[in-house]
Design brief:
heterodimer, A: mainly beta, 4-stranded antiparallel sheet, B: mainly beta, 12 strands, about 50% strand
């Protein structure tokens, strides 16, 4: 158990819908990252938050957004869902995410999203 | 841009044998970190081992060791005395040292390891 929690574990929805994925980082970690794992794209970085502020964006679609709340949990919002958004979405956390090489990211169990 | 290459899509090894999973990387950064993660069939990503680009010695964590050859830009994972529970996908990843900003991980495509009894 990494200490990172994600809910829900599975999510099945229809095209055009909107969903929210939730992540709670490890105790003491200030940085949260979101990754998408799909068969065709592999593991792709989406976005990073550090202590409530957006730190970096990766290959995140405009239909997707995220935020980190004062209690440091984070939510990833996916809207106007398409079939191609079906994937495993991971949240990871690290102590600070400020560039230290030893700042290991610990992953949550993931949310498997299926868009029908 | 950083890139990770894992050339072995799948590997089959007998239980108790040692196994080496290959990873080569490409980066122009002088300072970077290399990571290995394990993804069992259940789906979670489990951190295994870390190697910093300036570390003089190869990293070890229990049965895992990282064969780091900087000049060749390789960071192979060695699992000694393999066990049935080692069957999983293994991902090599890297990040770079930045004073500020993102610490995103760049992943390879993974190697599926199967341990045969």
């Amino acid at each position: 158990d990494s200490g990172v929690t994600q809910t829900p574990k599975h999510l099945i929805t229809a095209t055009g819908q909107r969903v929210t994925l939730r992540c709670s980082p490890r105790s003491g970690d200030l940085s949260v990252y979101w990754y998408q794992q799909s068969l065709d794209q592999g593991l792709q970085f989406l976005i990073q938050y550090y202590n409530g502020e957006e730190r970096a964006k990766g290959n995140i679609l405009e239909r997707f957004s995220a935020q980190q709340f004062p209690d440091l949990h984070s939510e990833l919002n996916l809207s106007s869902l398409e079939l191609g958004d079906s994937a495993l979405y991971f949240c990871a956390s690290s102590v600070w995410g400020g560039g230290a090489l030893t700042d290991t990211q610990y992953f949550g169990p993931g949310t498997r999203l299926t868009v029908l | 841009a950083q890139k990770i290459t894992q050339t072995q899509p799948g590997m089959f090894v007998q239980e108790k044998e040692a196994v080496t999973l290959d990873c080569t990387y490409d980066t122009s950064d002088p300072s970077y970190g290399l990571f290995w993660y394990k993804q069992p069939s259940s789906g979670e990503m489990i951190f295994l081992i870390y190697q910093g680009s300036y570390d003089q010695q190869n990293a070890t964590e229990g049965r895992y060791s990282l064969n780091f050859q900087k000049a060749r830009k390789s960071a192979n994972l060695v699992i000694s005395a393999s066990q049935l529970g080692d069957s999983a996908m293994y991902f090599c990843a890297m990040t770079r040292n930045r004073r500020e900003g993102a610490q995103k991980l760049v992943f390879g495509q993974g190697t599926r390891l199967t341990i045969n009894p």
